[in-house]
Prior knowledge:
Layout (H helix, E strand, L loop, with lengths): L29 E3 L9 E9 L13 E8 L10 E4 L12 E4 L8 E6 L10 E9 L8 E11 L21
Antiparallel strand pairs: 1-2, 2-3, 4-5, 6-7, 7-8
Amino acid sequence: SPFVYMTYLVYTEWMKLSAVPFTAETKAGWGWTDATQAVQAGENVFEATYTGADAANYTDASKKANVVFTLGKATLKDIDFEVTQEEEVYGATTGNGVTVSSTKVSSSDITAVYYNGETEIPTNAGTYTVTIDVAETANYQAVEKLEVGTFVIEKATLVKADFKVEQNTEVYGA
Length: 174
């Protein structure tokens, strides 16, 4: 029967069965029946077929085998996320903060967004480091405080309409 080398097998996006190798101890001639199938983290069971040069010497039933193997969950990285924001200027902020998206996990898997370590969306001018927490999913490990980008609130321009000088009509010494 064929065996899979399970050490260091970790899920990757778009991973196909063809990326899962048999061990060196597996008799040459074994191959995946359909190597184009997608695999997932966790336990997988797929059929292998023996087509070696001496295949005619074996029964059809013995030339098929279900192979069980386990893939570890992958670790998310900062490049797996995109941070977008509306233009923000001090005194006229939208209060919306950032939007964090990913092609690897859904937005509902992002459980918290932090700005310099705080969950409150900033209102003062400045650049804030954005970190996120992500829940464990079927294929990815949970992560906490993963730095994914920045949130910027630009400084406002102080204009003459922002201040007023009143003329004093009192006369000094009168």
